[in-house]
Design a protein that fits this description.
Blueprint lengths: L1 E6 L4 E10 L2 E11 L6 H19 L3 E5 L7 H20 L3 E5 L1 H9 L6 H11 L9 H15 L4
Parallel strand pairs: 1-4, 4-5
Antiparallel strand pairs: 1-2, 2-3
Helix pairs in contact: 1-2, 3-5, 4-5
Amino acid sequence: MKILGIDPWTTTVGYAIVEKEWNIFSLIDYGVIETLPKIPLEQKLIEIWADLVWLIDLHKPDRAWVEKLFFNTNITTWINVSHARWVIIHEIARRWISLYEYTPLQIKKAITSNGQAKKAQLQKAIQMIFWLDDIPKPDDAADAIGIAYMTALERDI
């Protein structure tokens, strides 16, 4: 089973592909979809969509999990990220890929046993789980790995 994990933003969208065969987990691919910071939102959304289409066509995931948004203080950022999230969810749903969501707290708790874990703790745990030479970077990609791995741990989805 191949799982696509997505950490949605507008300038960088973290992604990861984790494969689970029996109880063996493999990190197949991870990184970020990047857009230029100063371009209009609609152009960012088109670039995110095009890169996501390419990733899905390349890896053909069976399931996808997207991080849920939480409202912090900047409403404009939250609204823009909501638009990016919609583009991502729409493409996944359009392809009939099973789609699920996790909050950042759920992801941190599942990976590190601490829902309040710092980014560095999550990255270090992921490095150890997948026997990576280096801590996965950037943060958005590490979060996406955590999302995909947490999904692979689920038994009866």
